[in-house]
Design a protein that fits this description.
Blueprint: E1 4-7, E2 14-17, E3 21-24, H1 26-32, E4 53-57, H2 67-84, E5 91-94, E6 100-102, E7 108-115, H3 118-128, E8 134-141, E9 144-152, H4 155-163, E10 177-180, E11 184-191, H5 194-208, E12 214-222, E13 236-243, E14 246-254, E15 256-263
Parallel strand pairs: 4-5
Antiparallel strand pairs: 1-2, 3-4, 5-6, 7-15, 8-15, 9-14, 10-14, 11-13, 12-13
Bound molecules: zinc ion.
Length: about 260
């Protein structure tokens, strides 16, 4: 159920049913005596101009109410919500100043704001939303320092790859640094054909070279002998070069985020 939140036209006092105010409707009284079941009959509109709901602010906290009062209040709120949802006017009377008026609900919205510091995010929020309509300002997260990595065949390529992964909205982005230079190595493999040799090389690089290494070059040292009907067939041997990429790191900060709940 949406909050039933409204303000008195007379004394400007704000009431939120279920939080800081109590309501008594004649519907609730009738329901108590089981005389009339107004709701759920299809003709739920009741013109209560002559018999407005009574609304009073709650002196103590909502949690201090006994369970039967809470149950009654929730039932009253459901009735009022349901009647208001029809769009027809419903009357209430402010217990404090006696003004009789129709309910004009205050809608609550929320919006997110960012800043390069938590204080900046809060300032942006309070500049954008009038202070008196702010109900709550919650910190989603503070500024965070982060880093992303990238790989490439060249130092520039690795840094570009890392920069491409920096999320939008980030700031204080570092130019990037190389955190790992490429490593190179060689493997010897044997196979019956050039085609097989390539297959074996890829597998062996994956198995023996460091993570992320790729096949750079293959050089045939001894050519394989084809033979005839498998007789005289001989494996050739290849020297395989592998290398790992440049690895770069770019650090940056992500903005502080606050969420403001406010009355529209
Ligand atoms: Zn009032």
């Amino acid at each position: 159920m949406e909050d039933i939140r409204f303000r008195c036209r007379g004394c400007r006092l704000k009431f939120t049913l279920g939080a800081d105010a109590l309501v008594v409707t004649s519907l609730g009284v009738m329901a108590d005596f089981q005389a009339v079941t107004v709701l759920g009959t299809g003709s739920s509109f009741v013109d209560n101009r002559a018999d407005p709901d009574l609304v009073a602010s709650l002196e103590r906290s909502w949690s201090s109410l006994d369970s039967s009062t809470v149950r009654d209040q929730l039932a009253e709120m459901r009735r009022i919500s349901s009647l208001l949802s029809t769009g027809r006017p419903r009357w209430w009377k402010c217990q404090k100043c006696g003004t009789e008026q129709t309910y004009k609900l205050i809608r609550v919205s929320s919006k997110q704001f960012e800043g390069k510091t938590l204080q900046e995010a809060k300032t942006v929020a309070t500049n954008a939303v009038p202070e008196k309509s702010i109900l709550a300002l919650d910190v989603v997260r503070d500024v965070e320092g982060k880093a992303v990595g990238g790989e490439g065949k060249s130092a520039t390529g690795a840094m570009e790859a890392a920069r491409a992964r920096v999320p939008s909205g980030a700031f204080d982005i570092s130019p990037g640094e190389i955190v790992e230079e490429p490593r190179h190595g060689t493997l010897e493999i044997q196979a019956y054909s050039q085609e097989k040799a390539r297959e074996v090389s890829k597998r062996e690089v994956k198995r023996n070279a460091p993570k992320g290494a790729s096949l750079e070059e293959m050089k045939c040292d001894v050519r394989p002998a084809k033979g005839f009907l498998r007789i005289g067939r001989k494996r050739g041997s290849w020297k395989v070069q592998w290398s790992t990429p440049f690895r770069a790191k770019v650090s940056f900060k992500t903005p502080a985020v606050v969420v403001v709940q406010f009355e529209e």
